[in-house]
Please model this.
Amino acid sequence: MRKILVIHGPNLNLLGQRETEIYGKITLSEINDRLNKLASSQGFQLEILQSNHEGNIVDAIGQSANHFSAILINPAAYTHTSIAIRDALSAVKIPAVEVHLSNIYKREDFRQKSLTAPATHGQITGLGVDSYCLGLQALINLTQ
Ligand code: DQA
Model:
């Protein structure tokens, strides 16, 4: 199975307009294009979900095990609040990598703790779109 699930959490649909001094001008569709190119050049297929709703993300993770070999996730604000997403990541036995565009450890105190990262293989933070590309490459390396 050479399919990877990519999950973008809340407000990432607003990239390009949202706090551009922090997140830059890149849009979500530009990020997705970069990821699709990287995946297809190595024989992987992506399914990409953006949701502003915690339950949708929990459902997608919970249903992922039989269909995907790995999960790339930016839980966005849910990183700092969601035990439900952490539990879903722990429940499925496929590798996940957490990514962030900004460096969450350089920001407000409430962003400096990730509840979700301990349920993943690793976290890449602060490198903009490269966080996503490096995270995806790591998952491809892990699963082949
Ligand atoms: C983010 C960091 C989070 O703290 C924030 O809530 C986001 C985006 C990032 O990619 O830098 O929405 O996950």
